[in-house]
Amino acid sequence: MSETASVPSKQSTAIDYTLIVSRLRAEILHGKDIERCKEILSQQNVWRKMPAEGLLQWASLCQMAGAIDTASAVYDHLHRHHPERVEAWKGHIELLNILGKRQELVQVLAAAKGSLPEAAYRSCAEQVQSENAASDDPDMDAASAPFTGLRQRQAFIERYMSLFSGREDCFARQWVNKEEQKAGYYPVRRPMEPTDVEDHLAGRMTYGIYLMRSDATVKTAVIDIDLAQAFRTTTLSAADVTRIKRERDWLLRRLQELSLEVGMKPIIEFSGSKGFHFWYCFETPVSPTFARGALESIRKAVAADVNAFKLEVFPKQDQLSGKGLGNLVKLPLGVHRSSGKRSVFIGCTDTSTEAQLRYLMGIQPIGPAHIALPKEADQAKAPVVLHPKLEQWAKEYPELYRLEQVCTPISMLIASCRNKAALSMREEQVLFQTVGFFRRKKTLLHVLLADQPEYNPHLVDFKLSRVRGTPLGCKRIHSLLGYTGDFCRFEHVQTEYAHPLLHFPEEAGLQEPKSEKIENAADAIDNLKQAIRIVERFLGLERPP
Hints:
Layout: H1 14-29, H2 34-41, H3 44-47, H4 52-65, H5 68-81, H6 86-99, H7 102-113, H8 118-134, H9 150-163, E1 171-177, E2 182-188, H10 194-202, E3 207-210, E4 218-227, H11 238-261, E5 267-270, E6 275-286, H12 288-303, E7 309-314, E8 328-330, E9 344-345, H13 353-360, H14 388-396, H15 398-406, H16 408-418, H17 425-432, H18 441-449, H19 457-465, H20 474-481, H21 521-539
């Protein structure tokens, strides 16, 4: 995890806690250094000094990261020092119900009775009593905070069920044997009801859906991104950690861009500390062959360029055989029974269940007729119709947009910059020694580096003035970045020294950078735009990327 998310010093003020909570939430949502996040979250000398509001957020982060013991300790601290905070009691009760810790739940309820006003305590007690009456399952959980009005609640659940729709007459329930550390699913042979979704969202149960419908069609398909096995079982080197972060940032951005280019907007779910789900929810049922073909075209465009992650497309079948039910995927926003971790949609910064469900109300299902997949034989020459979100980027910075398409290692660095991830010295060196040879090098480098934690426009200009010679070669770039993918082929150029700028014949003759002197009106305009961006950034007026 970057230094910007490190523990605050003793001189830190209250705003520092807001900063570290914000940075930790971003790290956890993107699966960044989960173990390091847990280490920071567990430091009592940090969270014991926080105000009540900060402690509530800290406990939520602990649950997101799977630091359950720390979450319980934070709640205990809240009860002792801020017994009036009803949210803390309800949050603790919810956590204990998720974990099935009945004895501790009784103790917390007893403590709440002596600390809360009668009405507040009664609401907590009634929640637990109603859930015990409704189910004898040991994993029952108190109902989550109610939505504003029954109709709104019903609309949220209906939207959820409409988007994440699988087989109509069957779904799956997760089981776990904590003693043997085993987990799996078994079929529940009846239609899923809204009450089942409520149970799933509250953590009482954890359910999955069988993607293939009974008529051999699908309404939902998934690209599953998991950390490769080789990076789970060994102690990771610093280079491996950097590679994982770089590939993850690039995958999240590149998969979304490729999806938008062909008319499909995915719902991206952080499924835990090891992976992500890209959900593609169709407006009407489609054939599994069509859905898989669309997703495979996206997967194939990136799969060969990463080795830290494994990408799979579901469903894998064209039709069901025998009594099989096909592939299943765990429904989003649920709790994993063994780890206690809850998944979230990364497109919504508020991780509360209500906010996450509200986020789905703005999602439009994919219309199959709007999917523009070129035929395989025509893919090389088919024009790409850019999504409006990408069109502005491509229009303002065509060099960077094109570089993203043709050079995967550099594309990963650009993705890191656009995601505001801190670059290493090597990564920064690669950018200066490649982008630093474009005609608009100054503008492009400032755009890329403006969101770096230690961005200094004068230092960027100084480093750029020191760039000499020729662009960094492909072999050297691969070596510096630890990239193991294929090298580009430059069939139109006869040269023994391959470098990324050979993709840009219009930039030929710029091997030796020119001086920083403004030579024409275009240069003057670029410098003016850069000055405006710096002022906007300083005033907090900068437009989101």
